[in-house]
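Input/output pair, single chain:
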Amino acid sequence: MHPHTAMPASCRNQAGAATLFTSVVILFLTTVLVIAVSRTTIMEQRISANEIRARQAFEAAEAGLNAALHYMSGLGGTDQNNDNVADTFAVVSLTGTASAYSVAYCDPTNPPTGDGICPQTPGPVVCDALNNETNPPIAPSTLGLSESSYLNTPLIVACGWSDDRIGRAMVRQNVGTAPGMAKVPSNPLTAKGAMNVQGSATVTNYYNNLTIWTGGSLSNIGNSGKTFVRNPNVSPPDSNTVPPGPPSSCTTSTNYVCLTDKNTTGPDIIADDPTLSNLTSDQMFQNFFGTDFNTYRTSYAAQDITAAQASSLDGVQGQSIVINGNTTLPNGTIGSRERPVVLVINGNWEGGNPTVHGIVYVRGNVNVAGNPAVYGAAAVEGTVSGTGSLDVIYDPLASSNAAEKTGRPGLIPGSWRDWK
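Output:
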């Protein structure tokens, strides 16, 4: 007989049950752990996917913001169809991806709020757009802005969507513009050189008694040339008053008196002024613009174009534009009294038949050809001559609006935000 007694069957059964229980517990814990790990993995994947969607939507919105600023830097700015209303944009899909953005120029005086700015699916931005300037929702003057600058200082609002349209983001930023000119001319026509027009020059000033100021001699304003100042019986107007049209002949009317014609030079003209003639061309430019020409054209002017491109200026409003080369301006209207222009001709002005509202500054000579008219002011570094008919009607409102905010647009630091 074996020295050890055999284990009873009941004990053997108990050991098997314990092993089975332990195995079940371990299997259960393993299952719980697998489920927990799976849930964590799924959650991390979802978080990662959401982060990717959010990044895609944000980057799409940033792309829209940059696209709107780039569009605004084009000829005509926010209003390139010249209807006095900010242009609108279609939804744009980003190249190489299904992400999309939508952008709008919004009223900076009434920024959008709430969740409805960006629709759930790609669509137009919901905000108060820049309306016709003759009737803005809130007068720009209440914010220290003239109406000429209203379309030049929008609030850009951009919405972006991820490629699966689940992610959605909004960014917005205000836009400002550089001044178009530092010092506004106080009389209609200023020339550093001489003036000898064989055609005619009609120069009108309803606001003060200075019409033509030259550094050289004034030998001729043309056979039918004449100057007009306000009739002394008329009370001095404010700058908002629209200047009335002058008479067709050198006579006294209800609004004007004629002081200068081909036979008589009146007290409204300053000629042979050494203070003006002794300026260099660069000094004269800096006196009006507050900086040198190269800095102005690269940092302040909204547009820098060639003389050949000047033909596209008909209808353009509210910008400062450098035109390089001897220039003939197109027939038509450039600028308006509320949204005038600053035209800097880096060469000679050869004429044309435009009506310009704003300021024309010529770095060369004016060779009058055709029948150009300027409502605002003109300044010339060279001489004024030619056989055409030049009309300059001084308008201080157009001049000041042109000088205020017609320069290069840029995003205003500190105005960026991505919350509603």
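The two ends are 93 Å apart (CA to CA). Residues 189-404 form one domain.
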